[in-house]
Design a protein that fits this description.
Endonuclease, Chain A, alpha+beta, three-stranded antiparallel sheet, four-stranded mixed sheet, 40% helix, 202 residues
């Protein structure tokens, strides 16, 4: 399937669409504006207007990748090039962190801004239709993130969340990751602290 037309790409930049990678089985991954509009060939821009039945929507949702997404692969390559080694998706840990650094007692999550609702991020805007459905689903994701990070801290692990929009500035992301991984064991990850502060205010 061909890439986006220029007028489609311009419309995508308004942030009013979900951006999806279509494969033989349907939707396979959701990514950010910059990653999917005019940069990667073979992607389609999918309007937020929800015309699916609950059954059809459920089938699509089960086909969206929860790991090995494009942002995650970029982050993994970056960290590998920096000389750090890690384990992937350790099932025995709460939330199955994307990257685990056992010797450093640290884990990193690569979060999609929409699915995990990155605060003050344009990619995280709620669709204008089926608002109740999306609000309940995404708030559930946030609660699960908070719970998983709390459990990881209780296990003595440090937690860092890298948001997909942060990969736009790869140099800054590299600096943040290096600072986090080189901290002494017992230090606190920046993003997990923000999540706990948010929970205490609610």
């Amino acid at each position: 399937m061909g890439g986006l037309k220029s007028e489609d790409a311009n419309h995508c930049l308004t942030g009013r669409h979900i951006f999806a990678d279509w494969g033989p089985l349907g939707i396979q991954a959701v990514g950010s504006v910059r990653q999917l509009c005019g940069i990667v060939i073979g992607r389609r821009c999918v309007g937020v207007t929800d015309t699916l039945t609950p059954e059809a929507r459920s089938r699509c949702m089960t086909r969206i990748r929860s790991k090995d997404s494009n942002p995650e692969m970029r982050l993994r390559r970056l960290i590998h090039c920096m000389g750090f080694r890690y384990r992937l998706h350790v099932k025995d840990l709460p939330g199955k962190p994307d990257l685990v650094f056992p010797g450093r007692r640290a884990v990193i999550f690569m979060h999609g801004c929409f699915w995990h609702q990155h605060q003050h991020c344009k990619i995280a805007r709620l669709p204008k239709t089926s608002v109740s459905y999306w609000k309940n689903k995404l708030e559930g994701n946030i609660r699960r993130d908070i719970q998983n990070q709390r459990r990881l801290h209780e296990l003595g692990l440090r937690v860092l969340v890298v948001w997909e929009c942060e990969l736009r500035d790869i140099d800054n992301t590299a600096q943040v990751v290096r600072s986090f991984l080189e901290k002494q064991v017992g230090a606190t990850g920046r993003q997990s602290t923000e999540l706990f502060a948010k929970e205490s205010r609610s």
